[in-house]
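Work Package 4 report. The design task specified in the project plan requires that, given a folded chain encoded as structure tokens, an amino acid be chosen for each position. We show below one input record used in the internal validation round.
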């Protein structure tokens, strides 16, 4: 059985562009000194000359067909796959000769352990008693109560500090006050309030003397409003939680995440936030820098076929660890997760999966995107505005709308219009996902009529307007992505 690999597939496995360049450089320099594959074609392995005296032993294992291949290497790199494993795959793609050899003993042992682990998991899955026992997570209630009390103390401190900012007025904010905000960012970490840390960090950025704070006063007020809502809703939730004998999580809203809870997949399963037969088609993908979180964010927008639900995938790559985490990329097939885990959320909840199968996108899939979009702007905007009323909701909701035409208004603004004549102005939103509106004038006019558009919305505080940025245009030819 031959392994089917393409250069594009290997590129997608690479953690970053530098790893691709370095891997191909190893091939050009003839650093791969041994190239082998097993008789069944499920393992590539060999040796690669490195900076040390001994060669690095590297391998790529394709035994688990429903998952990404497992790369292994004796080099000290913390990237997966490392450049040596990538070079092994690029060599295979380029047609270099791989001799048939017996699987190395250490890899055979690792395969056996994985097989035993999967057999045990399958046995648990088939036994309702074991499955229920495994799902039941023991909670140290005394420790959890102490944590909740600590969080309440942190909210009190946060409230006292933000009220002092409001009383003194934003015009009095200088470098010293910004430094105090940054000190409170660190302090909130001691109170398990990571959401408060993020929002205070964003407030500090808006009011920093180097960022022209006078121009940001409107958004600073909005940020203080958000923090106030977090304090008020967070306190009510934590006090209610203390009165619950089970100290149960709120699996219907995002308040747990705002207060610092990181949802585990086992918890999402416990609260039945999962579905077994979902099919997703990615409509847009982008990566951006989020200084508030101090992370890079890989953001994908997906339509769950058979519904109007736009889902989001979010991968966070902390600054300090970003080079060790593979950046996600555009996905061009239908994803069939097994299962699909859905986080508590609003219009576009976050989703995750552990494994998935894929299939090719069909003409029927593309056609279904049109049928699942909102026909009326009024109907869609009503849904968006209902979300934006909640200060703790995602401020950038995404929606599919059927659009009859794009055109430029008298004041040279780009506008979309629906079949009823209602219009929405287009401009790039403040989320740093890249520009797309500026590309529209360069597109053929026939591609901008009677189409479906994925839009992300924002309420501009300084103008009071609801604006939208197009991310993708879906027409008879497929999905035209405007972000890369």
């Amino acid at each position: 059985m031959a392994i089917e690999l393409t250069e594009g597939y290997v590129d997608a496995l690479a953690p970053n562009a530098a790893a691709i360049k370095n891997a191909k450089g190893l091939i050009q320099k003839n650093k791969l000194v041994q190239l082998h594959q097993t008789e069944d074609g499920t393992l590539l392995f060999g040796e690669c000359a490195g900076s040390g005296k001994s060669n690095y032993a590297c391998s790529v294992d394709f035994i688990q067909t429903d998952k990404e291949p497992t790369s292994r290497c004796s080099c000290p790199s913390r990237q997966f796959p490392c450049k040596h494993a990538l070079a092994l795959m690029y060599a295979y793609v380029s047609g270099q000769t791989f001799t048939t050899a017996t699987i190395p003993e250490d890899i055979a042992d690792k395969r056996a352990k994985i097989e035993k682990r999967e057999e045990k998991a399958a046995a648990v899955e088939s036994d309702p008693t074991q499955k229920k026992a495994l799902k039941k997570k023991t909670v140290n209630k005394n420790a959890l109560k102490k944590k909740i009390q600590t969080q309440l103390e942190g909210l009190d401190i946060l409230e006292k500090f933000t009220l002092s900012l409001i009383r003194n007025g934003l015009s009095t904010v200088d470098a010293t006050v910004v430094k105090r905000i940054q000190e409170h960012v660190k302090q909130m970490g001691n109170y398990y309030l990571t959401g408060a840390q993020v929002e205070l960090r964003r407030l500090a950025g808006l009011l920093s003397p180097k960022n022209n704070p006078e121009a940001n006063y409107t958004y600073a007020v909005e940020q203080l409003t958000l923090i106030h809502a977090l304090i008020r809703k967070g306190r009510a939730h934590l006090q209610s939680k203390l009165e619950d004998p089970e100290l149960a999580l709120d699996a219907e809203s995002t308040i747990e995440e705002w207060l610092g809870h990181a949802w585990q997949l086992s918890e999402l399963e416990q609260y039945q936030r999962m579905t077994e037969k979902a099919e997703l088609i990615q409509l847009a993908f982008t990566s951006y820098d989020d200084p508030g979180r101090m992370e890079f964010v890989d953001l994908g927008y997906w339509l769950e076929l058979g519904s109007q639900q736009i889902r989001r995938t979010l991968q966070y790559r902390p600054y300090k660890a970003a080079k060790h985490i593979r950046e996600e990329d555009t996905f061009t097939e239908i994803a069939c997760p097994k299962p699909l885990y859905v986080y508590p959320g609003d219009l576009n909840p976050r989703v995750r999966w552990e494994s998935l199968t894929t299939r090719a996108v069909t003409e029927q899939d593309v056609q279904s995107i049109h049928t699942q979009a909102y026909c009326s702007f009024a109907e869609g905007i009503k849904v968006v505005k209902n979300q934006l009323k909640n200060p703790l909701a995602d401020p950038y909701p995404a929606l599919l709308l059927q659009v009859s035409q794009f055109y430029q208004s008298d004041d040279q603004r780009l506008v979309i219009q629906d079949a009823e004549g209602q219009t929405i102005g287009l401009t790039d939103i403040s989320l740093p996902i890249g520009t797309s509106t500026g590309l529209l004038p360069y597109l053929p006019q026939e591609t901008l009529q009677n189409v479906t558009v994925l839009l992300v919305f924002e309420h501009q505080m300084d103008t009071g307007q609801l604006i939208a940025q197009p991310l993708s245009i879906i027409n008879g030819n497929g999905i035209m992505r405007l972000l890369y």
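The chain is about 35% helix and 25% strand. Validation will be extended to a larger panel in the next phase.
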